[in-house]
Amino acid sequence: MQSKELEQTLVLIKPDALKNSLTGYVLSQLSEFHSGLRFAGLKVVYVSRMLAEEHYAEHRGKVFYPSLIEYIRGRIHYPDAPHKQRVIAIVYQGPDAVKRVRDLAGPTNPHDARQEKPGCIRSLGTVVPLTDAEGKIIGERMDNLIHASATPEEAEHEIKLWFRTSEIPPFMRAFPVQQNEEVHFYYKDDKLYTQHEPGSTCVLAPGDVMWESDITALGLISEGKQAPCTLQAVVAKYLTNETPERQ
Ligand code: CDP
Ligand code: MG
Question: Which residue in 14, 163, 205, 246 has a CA-CA distance of 20 to 30 Å to 75?
Fold first, then answer.
């Protein structure tokens, strides 16, 4: 649980905001003057399928889910331009960070945002009808410019999903970290290894500092035990901006 004063939240500037050159506007709305919050981490991310699916795991099975995954990966707004498919991921820190950013973002549905809170960030979004193969409308997708964590618990999960410990300055880390003494962990094709496998990615080596909960989860997973999160939720951040998947 985070202290209120140093509370953190995750913001994603989504591909529709990037396409419409609203990045500066969003950063300005969320600036310390308006929000009372400070940057604790910031990066440009190519969103792999793994990261997108972990981030939106709670929406799996819903009618808008496949389209939502394509949207956050930039494949709706930049279908033919892989070099533009990215989001900006930001950790904000300060008193009541989660609620303050949600308030500035406004309601999820841009129509509701315009009705209930004209001027909020999401009031500049759009709602797009979704159709099946025959062209029948089956639902809608909300292109609402930014993601903002909904609760402090969700913020913790999402910050650990998107950011490595080393991407947040040492005195701004809101969650326990641990230095690994001797274990190695490698990831390849949905599997975890304790010794190097050709083609694998090293996610933890001696001397590395990692979220404590990630080290615990990797230990449990490597012993075949139930862990509090999936293997993908730990490793996705080590695979972003690496070789893109061909899909
Ligand atoms: O983003 P927020 O937490 O406000 O809403 P959510 O219910 O967690 O949904 C996540 C994202 O899915 C939204 O921000 C929308 O982009 C999208 N969504 C959608 O396209 N259609 C819906 N009926 C609900 C959500
Ligand atoms: Mg949500």
Answer: 163
The pTM (predicted TM-score) of the whole model is: 0.96
Which residues have C-beta within 8 Å of that of residue 80, sequence separation ≥ 6? none
Q: What is the pLDDT of residues 175-234, one digit of tens each?
A: 999 999 999 999 999 999 999 999 999 999 999 999 999 999 999 999 999 999 999 999
Fold of the domain spanning 4-163: Alpha-Beta Plaits (3.30.70)
Distance 195 CA to ligand 2 centre (A): 37
Active site residue 157: no
Rounded to whole angstroms, how far apart are CA atoms 12 and 56?
Answer: 13
Check residue 3 and give its pLDDT. 76
Q: Would you kindly state where each structural domain of the chain is located, as residue ranges?
A: 4-163, 177-246
Catalytic residue from among 55, 77, 147, 157: 147
